[in-house]
Design a protein that fits this description.
By secondary structure, this protein is α+β, with helices and mostly antiparallel strands. The chain has helices spanning about 1-35, 90-95, 160-165, 205-210; strands at about 35-45, 60-65, 80, 100-115, 120-125, 135-145, 150-155, 170-185, 190, 195-205. It starts with a helix and ends in a 13-residue tail after the last helix. About 20% of the residues are buried.
């Protein structure tokens, strides 16, 4: 009789273990699905009309061999968007047609956006750095808390008398735009500077496109202005 009672007492424990195992298995896909992907689009442009009223903006000086930013090839889960997936086409075209502005770079990519404690900094590839024209590089960090947050750190590299003077020493001058801002998805935001600026748009990614593109390598399709 005692053995029968002990066997009966073991049944609820076994059932509880099986139920806990099923709960764990059913919970795992929910955790994976909770990861949110966003499309981030960034158009950077130069201000051709100097409206700083004579104010002198200090130059940052950057050693030419400085490579603090991680390479894009080392960053996982970044998918560069094709031209037909971009949403700022009209804005970019308006900048090209304008006499007061000149587009310098146009970045568009998809990535998982994590909590601010875990979000990674992504390096933007330099556009036009091999020519004598002004070009852009820098980093972007997108994170998610109660709101979306965008940490933008861009450098405008220019050909100027200061750069000619400093070329012999291997130091390049740059003008920096660094700003942190709380964002709303699907809302266009502007970042202003007397010498150059940027417009940014963050949009929740399409779930079907995420599944279809999960096996693609992270390689920029087009960042030219």
């Amino acid at each position: 009789v005692r053995q029968d009672i002990q066997a009966m007492l073991k049944i609820p424990v076994t059932l509880l273990l099986m139920a806990a195992l099923q709960l764990t298995i059913s919970w795992m896909p929910v955790v994976f699905a909770a990861e949110k992907h966003y499309d981030i689009e960034l158009v950077v442009f130069e201000n051709l009309v100097r409206n700083d009223q004579g104010e002198v903006w200090p130059m940052d000086y950057l050693e030419s061999d400085e490579t603090n930013f991680p390479q894009l090839e080392e960053q996982e889960e970044v998918i560069w968007l094709s031209n037909d997936q971009r949403q700022l086409n009209a804005h970019h075209q308006a900048l090209r047609n304008s006499s007061g502005f000149r587009p310098l770079a146009w970045y568009a990519w998809r990535q998982p956006v994590l909590d601010r404690n875990f979000a990674q900094v992504m390096a933007l590839p330099a556009t036009g750095s091999e020519s004598n024209a002004p070009y852009i590089d820098g980093t972007v960090r997108v994170s998610l808390g109660r709101y979306l947050h965008l940490d933008l750190d861009l450098q405008l590299h220019t050909r100027s008398r200061l750069e000619v003077f400093s070329a012999e020493s291997g130091i390049k001058p740059r003008i920096r735009l660094s700003e942190q801002r709380r964002m709303r998805s699907r809302e266009l935001h502007y970042f202003d500077h007397p010498r150059f600026g940027a417009m940014a748009l963050i949009t929740p990614a399409n779930a079907a496109e995420i599944a279809a593109e999960s096996d693609k390598q992270a390689a920029p399709t087009d960042t030219t202005p």
